[in-house]
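FORM 7B - TANDEM STRUCTURE REPORT

SECTION 1: FIRST PROTEIN
SEQUENCE AND TOKENS:
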Amino acid sequence: MLSCGDTFYASDDEDVEPHLFVIITPPHEGDVITVSVTTRRQKSEALVILKVGDHPFIKWESVVSYRHAQIRKLKQLEAAIDSGLAAKREPISGSLLRRIRMGLMESEFTEYGVLHFYLDLKISDDE
């Protein structure tokens, strides 16, 4: 159901406003990396800026939050969508996926475990 480049709208906590999340890796042993997209603020990390038109969900300038990058179980994400706790959105373009992946490697906020999971996948630009 879900694959690399797919997006979904969800909240990780019922006290937190929902965000758009992007799956940026193919599944590996049932796990994927997700990043969240958030409205750009004055102190936002601005490695990857999304503008209106980069994705149908984007209504104003937004950024990828690498601080919130996570390794997640694909089955749990699919279950959240099936149960209505999350909503599947349109996939991102290949060029945007490449920009987000580059930012993951460049960000000082990417957690060590997430970065090493990504690097161990040895993803090529065409995946």
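SECTION 2: SECOND PROTEIN
SEQUENCE AND TOKENS:
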Amino acid sequence: MSGNERKSEVQHIGSDRQLSSPLPWYRRHWILWSSMLAILIVVVVLMIHDNDAKTAAAKRALSAVKPSFTATTATATKGDIGVYLDAIGTVTPVYTSSITAQASGVLTFVHYREGQFVQKGDALIDIDPRPYQAQLMQAEGTLERDTNILAQAQMDLDRYRAAWARNSISKQLLDDQEKIVLQDQGTVKNDQGTVTYDQVQLGYCHITAPIAGRVGLRLVDPGNVVQATGNTVLVVVTQEQPMTVVFTLAEDSLAQVQARMRQMQTLPVEAWDRGQTYKIASGKLQTIDNQIDTTTGTVKLRALFDNKNGALFPNQFVNTRLLANTLEGVTLVPTAAVQHNGQVAFLYVVANNMASVRYIKTGVSDGGKTAVEGINPGEVVATSSFDKLQNGSKVTVSKQTPATNTAEGNSP
């Protein structure tokens, strides 16, 4: 074999050995990691697909079986409801007497107790009467003297008339005596006036109750000196039975009230406490003021209450409710059942244990009832669980009446 042939054979053997040698380490690692990443991607895709399938199945199961909520219900009824005009009023006594002194002197006795109920004519305060008794005695003495002088002049006049009838005296003497009698009569009348005045002044020393009512706090004590010309109030007596409440209404409501008064003669009025939590008393409208206040556009009204229990107190602020009209034959539902979504009112009507939204038009409310349109009497409405109910929700009716529910509910 030649040298060239051996050389080519050696080269060929070397190339075969080179091709059959193992791959480098970095190429082997890259292939391994690529394979593992591909397997991981396939596993993740399979898991996601499986979870989506399970979630869809769960949703289908939930949609097929809706949860049931417990709620209380009430039945819509047909009835009457009052239309009331609300206003703020002030309790005003029919009579209030602030007694001042009409005679000057020293207070000797205070008969009343603070807060005492007195009748007309009961003794309240005594002022020292002795100076006025002395003046009255003087006036009575003067009257007695002048009365006797008049009697003497009348006797003389009778004698002169008899003498004149016999032509024993002149006509001038008779005329003079007649005038003297007239003068004495005037003097006696003046004396009688003085006696009467002094009797009145003496009566002012014994102060009595001018009306039946309740006495306020004691303002004076025995030993105080009072003046007839002063403005010091000695005692205040306030009549509490009956009692009135003065309140105001907008002039726009005047025509409605007047028309109702012409029809009903009297209108019921209720007095409620400041927080409108309980009714204090019931009365009737007594009168309407004769003019509208132009500065406020309101008119005053006065309601009369018998106030037998004394619940209305003078100058107390109360909330008044005037029954201006009565709506008859309307559909009534509990006010707690009415829900709002902005300006829209709706109810949850319950039928076959299923709640459905019913949009309504609300009217007046009174005593926990509201007049509505859009629902028929006899239909059942939900009165609780508004934070859970939705259109189509299943409802389990509870027999218990819920506590006050102030939730506005969900938007349907």
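SECTION 3: OBSERVATIONS ON SECOND PROTEIN
The longest helix spans residues 25-64.
Helices lie at 3-19, 25-64, 130-165, 171-203, 254-264.

SECTION 4: SIGNATURE
Preparer initials: ____
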